[in-house]
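EI: anyone free to look at a 888-residue chain?
SC: sure, send it
EI:
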Amino acid sequence: MTKDETEGLSLLQRYADDPNGRAILRRMADSIEVANRRARLYWTPTVRKSKGWTVNLRISRVFAITLRDDKVEIALVAESVDPAAMTTLIAAGDYCGSFVQEPGSERYALDWAEAAEQWKSFERAHHEMLEYEGTDSKIRNPEAHAVIDFLKSTLDRDLPYPERELSAPLPLAVGRDGSRMELLDAFAASQPGRAILRAIARSIEAANEAGRGHWGTTLAPGATYVALNVGNACAIRFHPDKVRILLLPDLLESSVRTALEEKALHLWDRAAIPGSSNYELKWSDAAHMWESLEGAHHAVLAARPSRRTAFYRSHSNDVIDFLNRTLALELPYPDYGVDAGEADSTPSGATEGSSRVGPEFGALVQFIEAKGLRFPTETLANYVLALQAKRFAILTGISGTGKTQIAMAVARSFQAKIRDRQVGELDESATLDDTVQMTARPYHFKYRQIVLPAAFVAGIDHDRLLDPDPDSNSGTIALSYPGGLTRLGFWRDPNPTRNVTWLMFARAHDFRDWYLENLQPGDQFYISVREGETPDDHRIEFRLGETEVAERRLDNRVVVPVRPDWVDNRGLLGYFNPLSNEYSTTPFLSLLLEARAEEKRAEKEERDAHPFFVVLDEMNLARVEHYFSDFLSALESGEPIPLHESEEVEEGRTESGAVVPRQLRVPSNVFFTGTVNVDETTYMFSPKVLDRAFTIEFDRVDLDGYTTGTHADREAGLSLDGGDGGLRLTPYRKPGRDDWRKFSKLDGGRLHRTLLELHGILEEEHRHFGYRVANEIARFVNLSHEQSTDGEAAAEAAFDLALLQKVLPKFHGTQQELEPILRRLASALGATSSDSSEDVPAGTSVAGLEPGTETNVEGRTTRFPRTVAKIRRMLKRLEQRGFAGFIE
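SC: here you go
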């Protein structure tokens, strides 16, 4: 026996030996039974040392009961305690605070006698705490069974042990029709599950008889559950491990009702339909008992029929189609009439045509020219290939050559339309002066709570609608919504500097289900005050504007002007302000979050994500390593970048409502471009930065062509005119060994052998490159070969550009350091004497490059004119200044 078990059982024995203590143990046993029925996966007894040894009943992270040597601490929902009993409790007990996870909760410490005497007066409020919807308990303590065994033997009670699994979850499979029918397919694959599907089909027929617009079916995002909704209530909902059913329990036989309550994992009354209750069961128990429950269930389907269910916006015909196909039935669709609007066959957020490609290269060239921009075809192809191969390109060269313009033009050409749910404005005739527009935040769905805007609360305090009890800082308020009328609890933070009021709906099951079914994070809704004839009739009104699926263009680009005073990443990612408890965001961060949302949207719709573009203008005005090093690392490793540590900011529980994750992985559909000018006000790049980008020079200025409006396109050797249907930037894949193997076979292996020879020369001087650069060169060349009608010529031109942009940028130093290695590279890249100068573009001669040296290539031509021309310029600069670098 462990020390924890020994100390815990010793404390329990002291309670058992005292009459008041024994009464408390009986109450604790009652709470265990309630917890097991309402939250089977969430509860566990624990023993721990905290100001002496204690025995506790935990519901997830909430300590519902704590037994101490001289006191008992009990957690309860203050608003549910009778006011007179609450006054007595406050007078007799010590207030121990509340739980952050459950606003409105309070905990009191009582001596044994007071606890035994008063327990009955607050027991209902205490049992409500046992409904806390937390996460599965992570406690795996050996003393849990010892505590239960002691209570069972001492009190002669048949108490349950805490469970860690309700049942084996249903295996999720891919739907046979290719749609997101995983949960339905899983049910159809087993006999109990198939029995439930047939029962749901019968319920649909019964609901349709009560009213064709009275019902609807919902397939939750991610196929996490499927529901049949009737009127203002959820009639059936099934998950992989449980099924919820709504029925009228008074219509059940007493033996059936007793068995149902024993097997129920969770049960509660349904205010929307008087006399009804919800029961959650293991799916195997539900299948076994369904026949005996069906009459009471069908009775509730016809109760208070409505012209149109409040859940009509979330209806999915896919569920009906699946049941008809799987069970060979002819179930009807609901008919919501003209008010419901025509069903939109396009999924929410779907892209028109669901195209996963960008523009064709020829169309991109025309688009660029239509914008009045002048770039050689090869320059445009080179830039697109760099983004495809690496996601990070540096554009360098003299000022005013269009570096920023080409980046923005390419981004605009990839701008896509998507279809989104959009909530419109309220009818002006129905809008009150105090109407406030709000946004559904992730924490609403996680905690079932809403922070009311401070301005809204201040504006209605004079009506005393939200005047809390001074002792508990909590109360209740009436709320009307499209699904009916209910009462919600609220809690006011006692800290006057925070001015935060919470509206809580975890236990308002009718409103909670309606909210979760009809809204998703980011949706808009409206709240206002509706005055009644008396102050007691005042209520908050919750409304939605008309929701429609509409097209919008993705805002897929941002230009970030780099500031000289940047010394960290706050200029890009913003920062957390501890004084205001808010996160100061930036346009750059907003684009990353939108790109992440597009990734999730694309995954849900089973398509490729649309690309987003970041242009860092004048990137080297500040040291790149200071503000961009996190991104350089994250792009390679895929690890997230930490942003802050505030749970409130992460969940949008701040005054501004901004939702910023604690850490952010750089989305794979974001592409970075940095523009660079070099003068006395800028900083040079370190090899680490250059090694992680394709560095493209913009140094051609064709003033003659600018005058005549024609192109002197001397770089016609590379064009992406053979792509299959259009240019693709997503899905992005990091270059790897497969690219290298494929590259080794191109052009009969000649390019591969050339690169190996160059690598050997560089290795002798310890200037060689690693596997990453080799893979990136290979990927760059392979992509050009795949996307050109003349693959061999395109591959050779791309190889030349890859050498220029991935190997040479790291060369900078003195004449003594660089001249020998540059001359050897030039010699290795020179053509043989048998090569014809007619086979290469004009201007490729390297005659006179190395006069008077042993490796004279006078009069010879080369297959790689771009790289050799750059070497020539660097050698000339070495002769003139004694120092040279790639970026001039």
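EI: Residues 557-691 form one domain.
SC: 👍
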